[in-house]
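[recover] target loaded
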């Protein structure tokens, strides 16, 4: 009776094969889960790259507008200097020139405020772009790491399948046909 309680070599091999098959199935499930995570990360990266392109376009547009405003400001300053020179020559129009000068100063202040706003907006866009680039790199690194993990899992699965096939062959169990699917 004690001989019947002890596992036979064939029974032990079958138990080990069953354990390996269970391990193989767990590894397959983990690989599928990691593939889903990687796909989600890819979608996030694509969305961040689109946002980065949009931010870059806005920064370029802002820089062009700032250059135009700076040109307008220079032109307004040149106009102001011309008006000051005419002031000495045209004392009859003194009051009109003073009113025009005040208007130009207000315009200059408005333009300067716009330039300041654009410069601040450019700075914010640059910060956002830098942050988006850093996030894109982090997500890319995470995706590469997940892909490496999935590759290692595939190698482990292949080794376990080979071992299981070897064990089945040693037990006289016909080998399963590979399906090409995990």
């Amino acid at each position: 009776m004690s001989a019947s309680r002890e596992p036979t070599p064939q029974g032990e091999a079958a138990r080990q094969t069953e354990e390996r098959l269970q391990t193989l199935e767990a590894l397959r499930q983990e690989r599928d889960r990691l593939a889903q995570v990687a796909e989600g990360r890819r979608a996030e990266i694509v969305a961040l790259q689109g946002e980065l392109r949009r931010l870059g376009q806005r920064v370029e547009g802002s820089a062009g507008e700032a250059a135009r405003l700076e040109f307008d400001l220079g032109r307004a300053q040149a106009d102001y200097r011309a008006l000051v020179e005419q002031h000495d020559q045209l004392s009859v129009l003194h009051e009109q020139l003073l009113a025009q000068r005040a208007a130009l100063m207000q315009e200059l202040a408005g333009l300067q405020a716009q330039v300041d706003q654009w410069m601040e907006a450019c700075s914010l866009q640059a910060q956002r772009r830098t942050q988006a680039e850093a996030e894109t790199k982090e997500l890319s690194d995470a995706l590469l790491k997940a892909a490496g993990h999935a590759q290692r899992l595939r190698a482990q699965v292949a080794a376990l399948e080979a071992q299981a096939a070897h064990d089945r062959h040693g037990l006289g169990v016909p080998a399963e046909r590979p399906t090409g699917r995990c």
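[recover] notes: The two ends are 42 Å apart (CA to CA).
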